[in-house]
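Q: Mind making up any chain with structure tokens?
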Amino acid sequence: MAFLFETSQGRVNEWIHTLSIVLQMALGEAHALPERDPKNLEQTLALCLSVDFIIDGTERHIQRPHDAIAQQEKYSGKKKAHTVKNNLIIDLEERLVRYLSQTFAGRIHDKRICDEEDYTFPPGCVLFKDMGFQGFEPANVCTYQPKKKPRGQELTPADKAENTMIASIRILVEHVIAGVKRCRIVHDVFRNTKAHFDDLVMEIACGLHNFRATLRYTISA
């Protein structure tokens, strides 16, 4: 960017941080940002057109921290790398990111994030989840999760059919996350060390996805 705009890298860094706040404010005015406060989650989801939602976690690679304690906290055994993690709750009908959790260290399990943020859903909701949320059963919510093959046994044809159905629905969350990660700053290795900036850029990336998806939904409707 410094080369393209014929300026210094320091000036580019300064403008990125300044304009990120402006972009966040603009997306907020457009009502494109996801909810961040778990206390408002139930109210936010109650306003959606659909009662079907998907929850999933996503990790982003970061530069290896210098501090040994930070290295241990940020190391993800799943990714075999240093990461940060967020949970996303997505509206199945409009495919918007309705809720984005706070940014946690990579070693934190998806379900533990749910437990710490204490999610509540409107009664009668349907929630699709993967094995990373084993044991997460919100009150008054019908949850669907793929069934694991029992040791030494095979799944029944009915279980296999249900797993296929769940997988066909859950692929939508991968499409949404791919839309969020069109922003290279949340796709490539994140090297910025400014406090809370890793959280801000993820919120902005979700807001940009919601903004694009809302325009597509409006045009198609």
Observations:
- The chain has a mean pLDDT of 93.
- Residues 35-220 form one domain.
